[in-house]
Hints:
Strand order of the largest sheet: 1-7-6-5-4
Strand content: over 45%
Amino acid sequence: xxxxxxxxxxxxxxxxxxxxxxxxxxxxxxxxxxxxxxxxxxxxxxxxxxxxxxxxxxxxxxxxxxxxxxxxxxxxxxxxxxxxxxxxxxxxxxxxxxxxxxxxxxxxxxxxxxxxxxxxxxxxxxxxxxxxxxxxxxxxxxxxxxxxxxxxxxxxxxxxxxxxxxxxxxxxxxxxxxxxxxxxxxxxxxxxxxxxxxxxxxxxxxxxxxxxxxxxxxxxxxxxxxxxxxxxxxxxxxxxxxxxxxxxxxxxxxxxxxxxxxxxxxxxxxxxxxxxxxxxxxxxxxxxxxxxxxxxxxxxxxxxxxxxxxxxxxxxxxxxxxxxxxxxxxxxxxxxxxxxxx
Length: 342
């Protein structure tokens, strides 16, 4: 574990105002150290704000052809000034997509994809996890365990906790090399049980899960083959039977949250102009019908937002390379009323 890297960064980017509605959206670059920083997560823990992301020389490989990305974790007292509190690494592993969650016992959990390459070929995928009691000291990343047999090509993506159980989507290659996705659950963050294999074709992968007050589970799933349009799923306990709807857009690094009974807000990459991707925000309903409402300053290698509600604002972290040769990390703060305009 590397915790000595302690650089404070406050890089004010811009404040954008929707003048016709007298609303302001603030957007700040919170991390830019010249490395490729991507795939964000955002959470409030013990009264402080935490943002995590992968940090490496490039999107995958370094100058020596190795993929050994690290999980950078920033902390902030006020959401403006950010400091590195930990830089998690594991020899021979590319730690990607570090996702933050708070466990039932009050610990902060960092769930990461663990990619292993040989001669620039991906040979295995095994998720890694780290824990912190105080938000200062983090355990060394260790491999998670599956209570069922897998082919060793697994990727757990974002944990959602409810009534002492953490739910994740595991996308993986089965023993026949076919891309599949499953719903799994955990009580300790280390050991994962299979709930059900999800009936989704078209290379399903990154998926965000949310659980509504009535215990319905909603899942937004990225797909990367066929028509590549995202899937929106709804299920009730015990979450073995699902109703799926094909969405009207392609997703990339999706996240979403519920504002109220009628409004969901989602963040993702926009493929509307294939050569000029953007990170966007959308509003939608429980039926999975979404429309774009805001385009963030972004471009190039961009997306993987993380969403949280803080007071009367929506906070959203994301990464983008529209200003830098390697991607930097940004934080947008948007009034919640912005999403309720008619």
